[in-house]
Design brief:
This protein is α/β, with parallel strands linked by helices. The protein has one domain: Vaccinia Virus protein VP39 (Rossmann fold, 3-Layer(aba) Sandwich), CATH 3.40.50.150. 28% of the residues lie in helices and 24% in strands. It has helices at residues 10-18, 29-39, 56-63, 75-84, 125-135, 162-167; strands at 46-50, 67-72, 90-94, 111-117, 136-147, 174-179, 186-192. The protein has a seven-stranded mixed sheet. Helix 1 packs across helix 4. The radius of gyration is 16 Å and the shape is globular. It starts with 9 loop residues before the first helix and ends with a strand. The relative contact order is 0.15.
Length: 196
C-alpha cells in the first residue's frame, strides 16, 4: 500500500512533530560534503532552509558558517528546532509558503543558497520557483534534495517522479545533479543562476 502525504496543512505536521520520539535519520557527512562542494557554500553567505522541520539541515549549514533562516509551516516543529539548535547564526520562522504572503526578510537578490531538503514536493512548485528566482542573488543557488518516487523500493510515494526532477533543471544558467543514495532513490540538484 502506498501512502501519499503531499501536500499537508500545518496541523498535520504539528501532530507529527508533537510526538516525543520524532527523530529522523542523522544527516550523513558525505551529504554535507557534497552540499558544500557543489554549491560553494561559504562562511558569511545567507542561506534559507525551506521545510526545515526540526532544523537539522539548517544547523548543518550554520556549522559551515552561513547565516541561516529555517522556515516551516509547523509551529511545533519550529519551537522544537529552536530548542534543539541555539546558534547565533541560526533563526527559525513559522511560515507557510503556499498560504501566506512572502516574508519581508526574503527580498529580491538577498539569498546566496536556498535549500529544499525533502520539502519541495509539498509546495506549489511552479509558484514557489518563481519566487525563489527572485530571492536568489545573480549567482545564487537553489539546492534540492528529494526522493525519486520511481526508484523507491518500499512503495513510498513521498518525493518527486524522475520526470518532475528532470523538469526542474530547465531555465537555470548552470545545473548539476548527483545521487545522495547509491541506488538513485534520493537525488540532489544544484541549480545556479536564477536569471539564466
Amino acid at each position: 500500500m502506498t501512502v501519499d502525504i503531499q501536500p499537508r496543512a500545518a496541523a498535520f505536521w504539528d501532530r507529527i512533530y508533537s510526538a516525543p520520539n520524532t527523530i529522523f535519520e542523522p544527516i550523513p557527512p558525505y551529504e554535507i560534503y557534497h552540499f558544500q562542494d557543489r554549491t560553494g557554500a561559504a562562511p558569511g553567505q545567507t542561506a534559507v532552509d525551506i521545510g526545515t522541520g526540526l532544523g537539522e539541515w539548517a544547523n548543518q549549514m550554520a556549522q559551515l558558517g552561513m547565516r541561516v533562516t529555517g522556515y516551516d509551516c509547523s509551529p511545533v516543529a519550529i519551537n522544537r528546532a529552536r530548542e534543539l539548535h541555539r546558534k547565533a547564526a541560526l533563526d527559525f520562522v513559522v511560515h507557510d509558503f503556499d498560504l501566506e504572503p512572502i516574508p519581508r526578510s526574503l527580498r529580491a537578490g538577498s539569498v546566496d543558497v536556498l535549500s529544499c531538503r525533502h520539502s519541495l514536493h509539498f509546495l506549489d512548485v511552479q509558484r514557489f520557483l518563481v519566487d525563489v528566482r527572485r530571492w536568489l542573488r545573480r549567482d545564487g543557488v537553489l539546492h534540492i534534495t528529494t526522493a525519486v518516487t520511481d526508484k523507491m523500493r518500499d512503495g513510498r510515494n513521498v518525493g518527486m517522479s524522475e520526470e518532475r526532477v528532470r523538469a526542474l533543471l530547465y531555465g537555470w544558467r548552470e545545473h548539476d545533479r548527483y545521487d545522495v543514495a547509491s541506488d538513485g532513490s534520493i537525488t540532489a540538484l544544484v541549480l545556479r543562476g536564477p536569471h539564466g
